[in-house]
Amino acid sequence: MEQANFDAVDHYIAQLLAPEDSALRAVEPSLTEAGIPQMSVSANQGKFLQLLALLCRAERILELGTLGGYSTIWMARALPEGGRLVSLEADPGYAEVAWKNIVAAGLSEKVEIRVGKALELLPQLEAENAGPFDLVFIDADKPPYTEYFQFALRLSRPGTLIVADNVIRNGQVLDAQTTDAKVAGVQRFNAMLASEPAVEATILQMVGSKEWDGMALAVVKKPT
Which of 2, 9, 45, 190 is the most buried (most CB within 10 A)? Predict the structure, then answer.
């Protein structure tokens, strides 16, 4: 199958099971207008994250990498009354666009965006005893994925689900000689995940409108 087929099947599934409302549809043009790269998850991936949040009965969600707020909206809509999603975003411009989209989606009472580098914000969350989170979604810069995951463990409880996006990278993870820092970052992350005794984990390959990639899913057995 070629990319056109993947796109068509993704569209078919989304039309049936992950239709976008006006708030979700507004995210893509808001990114274009602001000159932000179109790196949001697909509608089907957003719905997948929403279902994972529902399966976890998540009341507290942590997201690393807000971008335009697309995945944020999908996950926040799974939260019950009084639920909270904290999203970390390094770029103030991205955070501003995301917040407008979140407000437009009617989710300002459930979502908090913190601006700054995740490796600086995560220790602050830990110091505040902000955890444990029920679901953690990692979709930020790839080189420090391993460090992000280690912080996620410390902000977790037994049963917390940690999801990391973009861990296959069009199959480039198979290249042991890569010089791409993003690929090397997820290779290091995947290897760590395989040997981490605190979780049970797997990786799902995904094809669709976002081409060929994958998500790692890890259930925490014993937080560090």
Answer: 45
